[in-house]
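Repro:
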Amino acid sequence: MKLRSMIAAFLVLSFTPTALYAMEQSVGWHRREDTAALPITVFHSTQSANLPTAQTIFKGEWQFEISHRFQPPFSAGTDALWGLDGPIYNRLGLSYGVTDRIMLTVLRSNLDDNLEFGAKWRFREGHFKAVPYQLAVKGGLASNTSTGPSYGLGYRNREAQSYAQLILDALLAHKLALGVVTSYLNNAQIADTRTLNEVTVGLNTQLYLARMFSVFTEWNASKSYEGLRHDALSFGLEIETGGHFFKLMATNTDRPNPTQFLGGTPIAFTPHEWRFGFNLTRILRF
């Protein structure tokens, strides 16, 4: 009797997990009512090299940024360690997600001590004929608190600048992100005694090669001003990991903040003039 009871218990224990697993598998096919739809994402980060994307950080998140633009070109060779051994223009930034769609940002560049307060609102996303897209607006107010002597007296009482941008992003074949950024810049040239306003059109692309790696390009078409005669172009590699976005780029602009970058660059986009730059952003959650 005891042996028969032990055999029965062994059979029950042996087959019960199999039965439970089969039951779990059968109900696993049914979609749960509370399954949330995945958010639409085109660009993974909030900016390209210099142009913004429509992406925003989530509510309660902070984003810290440090970016460098090296002034010597790659062509300087060993004398300037191929552009790395020389002065830089530095940009520091801190953003906060007010909501999942609205983020506030403060930026500072050591070029003219440009200090900016900005905001971005991602107001729409969806699909157009199966193509995911996002729409956002961005704007900012900046002050150049320490202009150099080369500006002369023309900049007096004209240190303030402002800008507004409309951003449209779309994703093709789940791998190629395209962005169009139309910008309005007030007081594009602080060294000019006239108030020069400008409308620019920027294009940026990003091809996602793997989970961590992608390549990007960027071009902002602007007017030609004295000392800022060329459009700003950049291309490079992005590494994405653990809340970090690390962009390495070749560029013809060393002007880091939006009101500086949008006005154009004095550097031609020829290989002899290419500079090295990088952006490093980190998402912080408390």
